[in-house]
Amino acid sequence: MADSLVIVESPAKAKTIGKYLGSKYIVKASMGHIRDLPKSQIGVEVENNFNPKYITIRGKGSILKELKDARKKVKHVYLAADPDREGEAIAWHLAHYLELDDTDTCRVVFNEITKQAVKDAFKTPRKINMDLVNAQQARRILDRLVGYKISPLLWKKVKKGLSAGRVQSVAVKLIIDRDNEIDEFVPEEYWSITAKLKHKNTAFEAKYYSLNGEKKELGKEADVNEVLQAMKGEPFTVNEVKEKERQRNPSPPFITSSLQQEAARKIGFRASKTMSVAQQLYEGVELGKEGTVGLITYMRTDSTRISPVAQEEAKAFITEKYGSEYMPEQPRVYLKKNSNAQDAHEAIRPTSILREPEVMKPFLSRDQLKLYKLIWERFTSSQMSSAVLDTMTVDLKAGDTLFRAAGSKVKFPGFMKIYVEGNDDGTVEEHKFLPQLSPGDVIQSDEIEPKQHFTQPPPRYTEARLVKTLEELGIGRPSTYAPTLETIQRRGYVAIEEKKFMPTELGELVIQLMEEFFPEILDAEFTANMEGNLDHVEDGDGNWVKVLADFYESFEKRLEVAEEEMKEVEIQDEVSDEICEKCGRHLVYKMGRFGKFLACSGFPECRNTKPIVKDIGVECPKCHEGKIIERRSKKGRIFYGCDQYPGCDYVSWDKPTNKHCPNCDANLVEKRNRSGAKLQCVACDYSEEVLDDDNEEQA
User: pTM for the complete prediction?
Assistant: First the structure.
């Protein structure tokens, strides 16, 4: 007979833990939080020390009855929610509902869901940590005050359905500020001169460096002509050769933000998808005879710490598989990335390095395998030796000018044998080899290529760039990044076009009003300091009621001013030339989470909507009568189809072109990935490179 009840958040977690604990334990799932603030009212007694009025979440009645019935049959109750603020709060609410004693050592936490980790955790249960609970309560109440006080104001002055929030408002402002930077950017002309050289049948390039011993910027064509004239048509002579050995260290193991960034760069996952798949890997996957096992450690963390046990296992694995030269003399220790890092958990890593991705392939879905492989490779490489690169810099003289060539080659790959961190622009680092050169060598040039460039504005935010910026500013915490990005899209404040955030007119209007009446909410430093105050509460060094009181004192005054002075704003829809085929009214442009679309101006009487059709100027390769237009799927992904649909059912994820394959005359389509674009034949292996605007050289 079971004598203990264990409560976790999800059925998947319950299933995994239940197999480890055996028949003496009943394991149930609470399905997340069981109590929360009411949706119909603010639910916070501001005058009574911000006392929250929690209610049972609708739909949880049957779950709670099941938990209470199970409680009556056992001697002990263990609350094993996730090891963070949210998990501690869930445990606290459960303890309150099940009427557990405050002194009970009922809280069990583990950083990984493996048999040993779970059994060890149950040997050392503890009391509920009220500092963690109070930090969570303070954040929840703070966000409720901001949301439920400002939102009704926006409904009254602008339109219903709007909302405001601390972190989401700062995120939208960052996107708008970047858009303004781009609009105000004035391109500046600059030039480069590349010499295409050859020595003993090895081709290489050298870039213009200086004129008459001084760095002279090439700002216009006249500067280029001056350099070309100073070369006097003379051959290039090697002036100096510098060879160095350079070490390159591995990237630290993943924390939540870096996992979201790298998953976006390397496997194209959005932040919400990354966290969803990571949750599955953490809670447990069925591994055949081995049973259900959690494959990664807890994925909401800002710590790069690794347990000594995991480091020892990594050392043995790397030494056996790759050789002792691939292990550093001392285990690597990664320092906190910033002072706000809590270091409460480990970094994100596989629960066992011995479970290589290839071995896990039969047990994982495609998305699970992609993310697990990324986490496994990042962790394994983080424990390996540094890479060693041989670098060569060569200065070459031609007349009164100096050109410089640089090259490198990998002498010892070290961690690079497994993994190299990606770049936001999608480029892949190349190691260019230079021929063996000596001072005095005379080099003939095949071509001198001057090229005009213009400086580029800063890039718009992708999800990865925005998460990175929020983290650098100290805004939000590991658990907030993904939901924040989802919220600002769902509210219609931003849209995503070509994987980049674009502010909407609605978003700009809301931020303009917020900036006028609630500037501190949009102040990145203020928001970061508030996160720091919540961290102090978690550490036991701060009073959560005082944190809220200090904030609310000035916030309440700003609310009063806004109520009096904020003017009503009417958002006018842009009217299109198209007529609604259902009711005859004009269609208007609307902004959704995936960009603009057309909707009937007679809403809500007429709810007709249609996508904005974009003709890409390509004849349909199937029927040869229709034109190819750009469309969007229900999930916002761009695809291409014939405008004669349903008469012609041609459809393609890749962008069709009017070009034909020189080998078989089939159509070429444009294929894009994170490293650029190419034209690919639909019928054979022929392909050719094309210029990708995103990868053009930037100043």
Answer: 0.80
